Amino acid sequence: MAVVAEKTGYPSEMLNLDMGLESDLGIDSIKRVEILSAMRTKAPSLPEVDAGAMANLRTLGQIVGYLREQLGGAAPVAAPVAAPAAPKASAAVDVESLLMAVVAEKTGYPSEMLNLDMGLESDLGIDSIKRVEILSAMRTKAPSLPEVDAGAMANLRTLGQIVGYLREQLGGSAPGGGPCGGCGGSEGDLIGGC
Length: 194
Description:
This protein is mainly alpha-helical. It has 8 helices and no strands. Mean pLDDT is 73; it is low at 74-91 and 173-194.
């Protein structure tokens, strides 16, 4: 509950295990992962939560139950909750530059070393929790970015596919962009040079 209170701003004494993540607390999928990531930082023995399983967890109690089950019924675990989404901004977002800056910040890789063909897990070691952390940081810096569905996020394998997906969700494509076979995806128009 402490992490949920910290990440959402809700007083911990107000939180209970029956509260709905979205319905009661306004916690979207990105914020869920951000909370789980913070919990794993504080308790590294916690298991990584599968994106598909996470999408089905609707209450604080379900998250606690899931984590206990994964730990084999071990000691109680703090329940995750997230803050309401930031207000939408109308300014255009340079998705590629923002992604590269956030990935560099979150992974420690120099931004000049990053390219859109890089695999999230295979090249950069970015697991599902870190993906959501990155997307959450991007939404914090550019609130007009859409929320990324957990199922869709699990299918995005390269930096270029993330850029393409976000641009598609924003209703635009990169100037000069077209289908990009180099990214291994068919997620619409990806940026040129991908």
